[in-house]
Design goal:
217 residues, three-stranded antiparallel beta sheet, alpha/beta, globular, 10 helices
Length: 217
């Protein structure tokens, strides 16, 4: 069974999807981490907006794995490195690259083949897994999403203002909506869940109920 969870940046998809997968006993696939890993590798090589072909070639060479908790880039644990503000501001280098998206969607399908999986991202219910048995569109207000991101980065020791995060988030929302392939769109058959005012456990509880209603008897 595939549970596809899509939504904008800062909606809490990664944490919530991981918790949901644990509850269900499913594997967890963080596709956002895959794009971040490619962006991190591109930054380390000094690639920028004018290096789309090089970034596409790089994506074909990289090995991206998950051990259930950590994101591994060519065997290196980059779980923390891919969540920095620098990578967040540059993830479009991978996410807006059509060749990179094609490659990563292929990898996502390979990783999910024959397994019960909770997968999260921007295009899981529309492009990667259009036949997923359960689709959820997870969202929150722009202010709430920015506040959560600010709290997360502050706890990690990064000094960045709320206003800067909000502006960066708005820019990413616009990029996600305009992307020619894999744009952030709510699938017609997805159930929308707004997380404003809800605790992490409350959101996971709600999603678990939704998924279990879809599990074949």
């Amino acid at each position: 069974m595939i549970v596809a969870i899509d939504g904008p940046a800062g909606a809490g998809k990664s944490t919530i999807s991981r918790r949901l997968a644990e509850r269900l006993g499913f594997a967890f696939l963080d596709t956002g981490a895959m794009y971040r890993a490619v962006a991190l590798a591109a930054l380390r090589r000094g690639f920028g907006l004018d290096d789309a072909e090089k970034i596409a070639g790089l994506a074909n060479e990289l090995t991206i794995d998950f051990d259930g908790v950590h994101t591994l880039l060519d065997g290196e644990d980059v779980s923390a490195a891919i969540r920095t503000t620098d990578v967040s501001a540059s993830v479009h280098l991978a996410a807006d690259n059509v060749t990179v998206r094609r490659r990563l969607v292929q990898l996502q399908r390979q990783m999910a083949a024959g397994r019960d999986v909770v997968t999260e991202g921007r295009d899981q219910g529309t492009i990667a897994f259009p036949k997923a048995e359960c689709k959820i569109f997870l969202t929150a207000s722009r202010e709430e999403r920015a506040r959560r991101r600010h709290d997360e980065l502050t706890a990690r020791g990064e000094s960045v203002s709320y206003e800067e995060i909000l502006a960066q988030q708005d820019d990413r929302d616009q990029r996600d909506a305009r992307r020619p392939v894999g744009a952030l769109i709510k699938a017609a058959d997805a159930i929308q869940v707004c997380t404003d005012g809800l605790s992490l456990d409350q959101v996971v509880d709600r999603l678990e109920r939704i998924v279990r209603e879809q599990i074949p008897a």
